[in-house]
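Below is how a single chain appears once it has passed through the pipeline. First comes the sequence as given, then the structure the pipeline wrote out for it. We keep one example in the README because the format questions we get most often are answered faster by looking than by reading.
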Amino acid sequence: MKDLLNKIKKFREKTVTAACRTPVGIEWTSVKISQEGHQSLHQDQILMDLPMDIPLEALEDVDIPDLSDHLKGEVTVALRASELLMRTLDVPTADPQEISDMVEFQVDKISPFPIDQLAVSHETLQTSEGAARILIASARRKRIDAIGTTFSQHGTRIHSIDARVLGWLQLLQDGDKLDEGACEILLISDGIDFILAVLHHGNPLIFRPLEANLDDMNVVDELTYEIGYTLTMLDAEHDLPEPEALTVWSIETIPAALVSKLKEKSGLKVNCNSLHELPPLSEGILRRTISPQPRIELIPSEWIEQENNRKMRKQFAVISGSIAAIWLSILLIFLTVFKVRDVKLAGIQKEYNTIESLAQQAKQNQEKLDKLKDSSDRTYSSLECLREATRLLPAGDIEFASYNYSKEKGVTLRGTGRDKSIVTDFFTTLNKSDLFDGVRNESITDKTTKGVRRTVFSVTLPIADKGGES
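Resulting structure:
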């Protein structure tokens, strides 16, 4: 039994891992979640010389170790911004079901691919009365399927798919690195993604993946154009304050000449920061994964169903095997002691047959004695109950119209009084009587007869328990 309980407890614990590409390989962050809460994070990486243009799903062409030795539990991976279509949308409802119905319609309008070829998801950024701002993300289904196949071939099952840029935003937000009170322009360059993002009150309005590098002076003209174009486009939809700065988060050091030229061309203050100041990107993705808030989830529903069925089958097999083992053990114990108990039972039966007649005679005598005591005890008689009800009448005008007595139901009184207050006082006094078990089914109404207004009442008074008798 102890082993079974330990196995069941183990099923209640789970390990969650977030993994992502880096310029030097693959990194991951894991955490074990149990009923006692989160345990410490475990972070590691595999160093590999991967071409920058190789997609996540093409890892089967690369000689890497079995990922099951490293990526434990429920695994989340993150897609590059260039592999996603991401839009922020204001919808005229805060109802989750209505929002879900709108999402596919909106994606179908803006996507170059048919909706049946896409994996679509969304998360709510903020809500107000009767409206919400949501972030929509979609990816080609064949890209999602390829990722699942690739990781399966390397020994790992994917449980969740998120977006890399949202992992960075999670880290920036948790580290109080965002200017949540203004329009903020972010440029994130992590060696895999190069993304221009515009935020308002800390929430993203748009993501624009770019094909550029911060070590190329020609990037300034492209960035200046993209910033101007993006702000012009957003001004048509949102009332945004004028941004004052461009905040750059980069994995590499930005040349001072490029920063100077970017300030001159864009007219914005340029704040440069290193992504090395933040925790690893996989930790940001993990924080989103274990957060109770609904988030973007690009895993197809049939993957989730298959995984749930697999887990249920595994749990059922383990628990069924354990229960079967326990049952066999109990059966063996039962068969072992059966003969001993059978002998004891035979002895008890013999003793029972000997004293049965004496016990029956004693029971009959007890019943006769109880009946005699009941017939001679007038404590709970009809007359005693009437005497008690009369004794408890308050001073004033109360008249009984009927009195009914039953040993099972007690006493039922009906009558009239001068007003409600005197009847209420009467009920309060009856409720304190040791003879009655409180007041039940009381009814008080006013009635006028021949010009005379009286308070009509009825009440049931169950007889108190006779010393625990039933």
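The mean pLDDT is 83.

See the next section for the split statistics.
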